[in-house]
Amino acid sequence: MRFFEYESRAIVAKAGIPITKQGFAKTPEEARRIAEQIGGPVVIKSQVLSGGRMKAGGVKFADTPDEAAGHAERILELEIGGHMPRGVLVDDRADVKHEYYAGVVWDGIRKLPVILFSDMGGIDIEEVAENHPDHVARAHFSTLRPFSDWQAKQLISSLGVTGSALNRLTPILARLARLFLSYDMTLAEINPLGELTDGAFVALDAHMDMENEARPRQKELLHELGVGDEETRQAREPTPFELAGEQVDAMDHRGVAGNVTEFDGNLGLVIGAGGGSLTLFDAVRAQGGKPANYCEIGGNPSVRKACGLAKLVLQKPGVERIAVMMSIVSNTRVDIVARGVIKACVELGHDPAEKIAIFRIPGAWEEEGFKILERYGIEYADRSVSLHEAARRAVEKIQGGNGAGAEGDQFRQTTAEIGSETDV
Amino acid sequence: MSILIDADTTFIVQGITGREAVNLVKECLDYGAGAKIVGGVTPGRKGRDVHGVPVFDTVAQCVEHHRGPIDGSVVTVPPAFTKDAVFEALQNGIKLVVIVTERIPRGDVAQMVELAAEREARIIGPNCLGVIVPDVIKMGGIGGPARDAAKSYTPGTVGVISRSGGMTTEMSSTLTAAGLGQSTAVSIGGDAIIGSSYAELMPLFEADPQTEAIVIYTEPGGRMEAELARYVTENDSRLPIVAFMAGRFMDEMPGMSFGHAGTIVEGKEDTATEKIARLAQAGIVVAEEISVIPDIVKDKLGARV
Fold first, then answer.
1. Is residue B5 classed as helix, strand or coil in its secondary structure?
2. Statement to judge: residues A400 and A261 lie in one domain
3. Hey, of B81, B100, B106, which one would you mutate to test binding to chain A, going by the most A CBs within 10 A of its CB?
4. Hey, what domains does chain B have and what are their CATH numbers?
5. CB A260 within 8 A of CB A242
6. Does the beta-carbon distance from A213 to B115 stay under 8 Å?
7. Burial code of B88-113, b = ≥16 C-beta within 10 A, e = fewer?
């Protein structure tokens, strides 16, 4: 999960790295008050989770508190990259002599964190690495042994930095390396790391990303920053359809109906699991199909959960039919998913044989599952039909047919035989 | 022959009394010649048994009861306790740790991997289904119940490596249907940092006389495929490799993660498009769909004779 700049700088400060005088404001009045407290020229920065703030006009300089309030008012209403700002950061405009870069990321191949340092800060580190590779130093470090200051010192000095700059930078980089591990970050970056005219070093901007999996054990930090459990901080805000998907998943603890993501096609997808969903979504598109959604069911979901997900997808505007497909299952039960999706169709007044373009889930309890599907006249396939072939059949049906299940379908059948919660 | 495990491999299950672990034990005992599960650990449950496998409080007690070193462990404890469990296994001389647990923070995984390297041990996973040698042994939930696993996996000459547990079985089943058996299939896990990558398993397959070709399942995110491409180029591998890449649609959705924790397009290098290009450059055929993989493999095998 990404942090806003004002949060990232709070994290940096908490780790003992100096930052400029600053404050977070949600109104122009608050911005004015903070500017007064700082007492001097300030920078007003939009707090959004997207890049390109400067270009979009989300960063403005102010000499007086009145000017700060004026800038804040405009920036608070400025959408950047599809996001409205959460507020503005009112930041002391420091007298910067030189800009450095410091960052820590994971190296998935070496399976170790790597700390990066550059004496060319203020620009994208990728750009520096490409155009001025001799200005980027990097070093892997252990996750088992504590990070020692000398490791930072050696890294910084390898670029020829010496004197008081070296001695002031060393603890900053060492603290950044330690906070990266202790707060479960996937990215911890200070850019620029400014050397001021008075010789002090401060973090002028910071970018932090925390691993989602670590949120439970980082509750204290998140609480301190005021980050709620409900904030997903994904690349884009979840849509109402996607939020409804999360509710389906939360209905009970049996199985997973995860990653429900909205698209604007006419073929609803009830697909699983991780790799199977990725494969099937590609397959539908490769056949010229237009998926209405993405999702991942698995982990042996209950009838209730499979039904809930199928209903959600069936009720999505524009969905003509659904395809129920998974790679071979060993834990999830074929019969339970079959019951769930049939129940969804019937309860919504549709004929399952019309609405379900294809059911392709081979594996555990498939004999039982196929029997149920047969009874309802639903087209199903076993493992001899490939994932791509199943996707092709589903797409063909939706493109060939005149959209099954218009309003007047009114297919009613007793749900007794598919059972409500017959799964064990 | 096989890699990683064979009929003689002994292992324990950490977290053995959990619901999924109980099933896993039964599946492994039933499969092939029957896995040699010499003990299980759930703290505080010493004295019980799971399908006849004795339960202990500690790994040390398992080793003592077995009266000798134990080869492996399947770890299926909640994410907050996984690191401790893996450390316990490694410090008690276990050389192969299969981590089933998902949602473990990367920092923990890195620590486990680092300690494993110091102890000259190997980790498979996390977030994986384990390893199977068809008709001989399976270590983990891979393939499901013995009866189901027997439908998908048959002995043969193809090594399978997959970032998705389910797709390991889907691809093996496709190979089986086409008359191509597998030497060993390894579900390596879908996280950003895993114990054993494609490139790290390649030397094992390379050294296995039974293996004649490799089939891999890949996804966007990370640089593991680039690492494999480099390995193949630098080592002049004797094994033809056929790859399948899922999640091509993710190229259009940077910053979003689908399927597995490790799948996220962050830069240009980890897109599906870029990976396909890199694999192709290294002479690795990237199949458009899974159903065509057997023919490509047969073609490659035929061409070598």
1. coil
2. yes
3. B106
4. 10-304 (3.40.50.261)
5. yes
6. no
7. bbbebebbbbbbbbbbbbbbbbbbbb
DSSP A228-290: -TT----SSPPPHHHHHHHHHHHT-SSSEEEEEEE---SEEEEEESHHHHHHHHHHHHHTT--
H or E element, residue B256 = none
Nearest by CB: A387 against B115, B144, B290? B290
Q: Check whether residue A9 and residue A144 sit in a common domain.
A: yes
Residue A390 lies in a domain: yes
Yes or no, beta carbons of B190 and A276 under 8 Å apart: no
| B216 vs B209: CA distance, rounded Å | 19
Query: Average pLDDT of chain B?
Result: 95
Identify the residue with better confidence: B91 or A228: B91
Q: Which of A234, A265, A293 marks a domain boundary? A: A234
Both A280 and A410 in a single domain? Answer: yes
Query: Which residues from chain B sit within 8 angstroms of residue A211, using beta carbons?
Result: 105-107
Please give the full DSSP string across A172-233, using - where no structure is assigned: HHHHHHHHHHHTTEEEEEEEEEEEETTS-EEES-EEEEE-GGGGGGGHHHHHHHT--TT---
Same domain, A117 and A192: yes
Pair (A261, A405) in one structural domain: yes
Can you name the residues that pair with A190 across neighbouring β-strands? Answer: A102, A206
Question: Chain A 5-24, CB below 8 Å of chain B: which residues?
Answer: none
Whether A423 is covered by a domain: the verdict is: no
CA–CA min distance A199, chain B (Å):
35
What is chain A's mean pLDDT, rounded? Answer: 92
A424 domain-assigned: no
Answer yes or no: do A84 and A108 share one domain.
no
CA atoms of A125 and A118, how far apart (whole Å): 8
What is the count of residue pairs from A and B with beta carbons less than 8 Å apart? Answer: 166
Helix, strand, coil in percent for chain A, rounding step 5: 40, 25, 35
Amino acid at residue number B213: A
**Residue ending a domain, choose from A201, A219, A234:** A234
Contact A277/B at CB under 8 A: yes
Least confident range of A110-124, A370-384, B110-124, B255-269 = B255-269
pLDDT of residue B73: 98
| ipTM entry | 0.94
CATH number at residue A319: 3.40.50.261
Residues A55, A12: one domain? no
Question: Can you give the pTM of this predicted structure?
Answer: 0.93
Catalytic positions of B, written as ranges: 260
The predicted structure's pLDDT at residue A401: 56
Task: Look at chain A and report how many structural domains it folds into.
Answer: 3
Q: What domain range is A130 assigned to?
A: 1-20+95-234
Is A361 touching B (CB cutoff 8 A)? no
Residue A317 domain flag: yes
**Residue of A254, A278, A326, A329 best to disrupt the B interface, most CBs of B under 10 A:** A278
In this structure, are strands B96-99 and B122-124 parallel, antiparallel, or unpaired?
parallel
pLDDT band at A406 (very low <50, low <70, confident <90, very high): very low
What residues of chain A lie within 8 A of the CB of B266, using their CB? none
Both A185 and A263 in a single domain? no
Determine whether the interchain pair B114/A214 forms a contact, defined as Cβ–Cβ distance below 8 Å.
Answer: no
Closest to A183 (Cα-Cα) out of A338, A304, A391, A8:
A8
